[in-house]
Write a structure and sequence with these properties.
With about 220 residues, this protein is of the alpha+beta class. The protein folds into two domains: about 100 residues, Phosphorylase Kinase, domain 1; about 110 residues, no CATH class. The chain is about 40% helix and about 25% strand. The chain has six helices and ten strands. Strand 4 and strand 5 form a beta hairpin. Helix 3 packs across helix 6 and helix 4 packs antiparallel against helix 6. The chain is globular.
Length: about 220
Amino acid sequence: MSKEFDRISPDIACLHTKKLPATLISTRGAHCKVWQSGGYKIRSKKMHVDLVIKCHRFSCSDSEVQHYHRDYLRLKNALSDMVPSALFIRTTVDGDPNLLVLARAFTPWFNIANPANEEEALPLLGKLKKARKQLKLFISVAKEWRKKESKVIDLFGIDNLIMDKSHQIRYLDSFGVFFHEDLLHLIDGVDMELREKIDLSRQRLEYLEYLLKKSRS
């Protein structure tokens, strides 16, 4: 991929991106591309913060914006500081209605929901009381949503649930954070891609339960 395609669009109505240093850090998400900008200055608080800038891949309607924002607020209200503070902005990108999300940046250490990282995760969780408490809350909330609403929290995405450099658990996704399990039974035929995402997310949630239990023993 050329450097030209790595750059954030110069035509985002709410941002002066020509003067905004931003590095592309992810193109793997199903819904968005993600850039990071370091040292953003907040004058009112006399501080600098690192931000991630998430831009929806396609034109995004008002109803879609409301849907994404509603799901984000549910996550934030339930999981508190595990979910980075974020600002959802209706704007235009390259002249089309779209959604931009500005979120507090956290540096991932590793994907804690990936069983391949068990050898690293277990001894850390055994020592980190706050991380265990965060993981317990995440598991409880995710199981409750699935039981009562058939909503499976997205653990399919790469680095959605991570331990960051400060040894905290963070859920970093903002777009399409739930899979609707009941859709598998409502649509004609089987959506194999959706089934794969749901099955892997369920398996990873079960792994997280195992990880939490084993870290206490």
